[in-house]
Design brief:
Layout: E1 6-7, H1 17-28, H2 45-62, E2 68-73, H3 76-88, E3 94-99, H4 102-110, E4 116-122, E5 143-149, E6 151-152, E7 157-158, E8 170-174, E9 189-195, E10 206-211, H5 212-215, H6 228-233, H7 243-258, H8 261-281, E11 287-288, E12 299-303, H9 307-319, E13 322-323, E14 334-337, H10 344-365
Parallel strand pairs: 1-13, 3-4, 3-5, 5-8, 8-9
Antiparallel strand pairs: 2-10, 6-7, 9-10, 11-12, 12-14
């Protein structure tokens, strides 16, 4: 059997090892039922228990108040790009969006199908190297909601805290790539959605945390499958969910609790990210993409002096057991994704290789 290597993939990403080992057992037989988790009916008693335990653990991890429902859907975070305005934005009203990268742009593209759009802050002119703040943000007069992408996986930028929505508007957040990586005040949000495949579990499941009062009636007539209220009322089982994905999220939530909760996650994530950032700030060979004040604790983006050296770096990294470092095609270079389950030893191994590579190729790039 081959040994596990360091997985820097941006998603699907590495999972906690204790969770993987528990899943190995439960795929064969969960709760001594004689049947594996992937074989149980989504309407049966065993999956009832999985559903309720997953929701309870999710609520405990995030201190989610009773005012907010917890449920899950399929279709990835991409489907939420149109679900949000379809359910919340009347045709004669406006929603404000932060434009901070590709995934924010994907959401922005869908809004005019349903209502008015206002870009309240954008870093497009710098290829999304920073998060707009202060005077760089200008809200519309009366937005229904303000949407932002809390962590921009491709660019390696992250909101340090949630923006302050204008009075009367609620916050919507695509938290796919930093959900439960640090403490969050859920009460400030109308809706949080997150694809599970980075910090919470396998691909194919999207977690939603939504204010119950916002779910009561969509603002327009919609197909039954597009109404958030149906999914919330049925505990994420309006249609057949990804049962294994829901189960594994529950295991990850319990792992986070066992590790000390979100304060502990934030400390560990910052500690391992700074291993790489401290090195980047101490040298002049590798070129970081994100501005310092906007750096992500989840995704670290950087380049070599030339694209040829980028290709050599990635090839050499794979030979050393450092996988998934190729940057997204939109900015290329390298991207080191280090989500909750990623070990600090992987960050240290990356820096050791970066030092070796820079020493070997610095003269040739001068």
């Amino acid at each position: 059997m081959s040994e596990r290597i360091f997985n820097f993939s941006a998603g699907p990403a590495c999972l906690p090892e204790p969770v993987i080992k528990q899943a190995q057992k439960d795929i064969w037989d969960i709760y001594d039922s004689g049947i594996g988790i992937m074989e149980h009916s989504h309407r049966g008693k065993v999956f009832d228990r999985v559903t309720h335990e997953t929701e309870a653990a999710c609520r405990e991890v995030g201190s989610v108040p009773d005012s907010h429902a917890i449920f899950w859907m399929m279709g990835g975070a991409t489907s939420q790009c149109y679900f949000v305005p379809a359910n919340f934005l009347p045709a004669d009203r406006t929603a404000d969006y932060f434009e901070t990268g590709k995934w924010a742009q994907d959401s922005i593209r869908e809004v005019p199908l349903y209502g008015g759009l206002h870009i309240c802050g954008s870093s497009k002119e710098s290829n999304f190297s920073y998060i707009p703040t202060g005077d760089q943000v200008e809200y519309s007069d009366d937005p229904v909601y303000v949407q932002f992408t809390s962590n921009n996986t491709i660019m390696g930028t992250e909101f340090a805290s949630e923006p302050d929505a204008p009075e009367g508007a609620f916050l919507v957040c695509d938290a796919s790539s930093n959900i439960y990586s640090k403490p969050i005040d859920v009460s400030k949000y109308g809706l949080i959605y997150a694809g599970a495949q980075k910090n919470l579990g396998p691909s194919g499941t999207t977690l939603l945390i939504a204010r119950r009062d916002l779910l009561e009636e969509p603002v327009r007539e919609l197909p039954q499958m597009m109404q958030y209220s149906n999914h919330a009322k049925k505990e994420g089982r309006y249609n057949t969910p990804n049962t294994f994905g829901v189960y594994l999220m529950g295991q990850v939530f319990r792992w986070i609790l066992a590790e000390g909760g979100l304060n502990a996650m934030a400390e560990k994530n910052r500690e391992k990210a700074m291993v790489v950032y401290d090195f980047l700030d101490s040298q002049d060979f590798f070129i970081p993409h994100a501005e310092k004040a906007s750096r992500s604790m989840m995704n670290i983006t950087f380049k070599c002096p030339t694209t040829d050296l980028d290709a050599m770096f990635i090839e050499g990294a794979e030979k050393k057991g450092l996988d998934g470092l190729a940057g997204h095609r939109q900015i290329q270079g390298m991207r080191a994704s280090m989500y909750n389950a990623f070990p600090k030893a992987g960050a240290e191994a990356l820096v050791a290789y970066m030092k070796e590579f820079a020493h070997e190729h610095a003269a040739a790039s001068a």
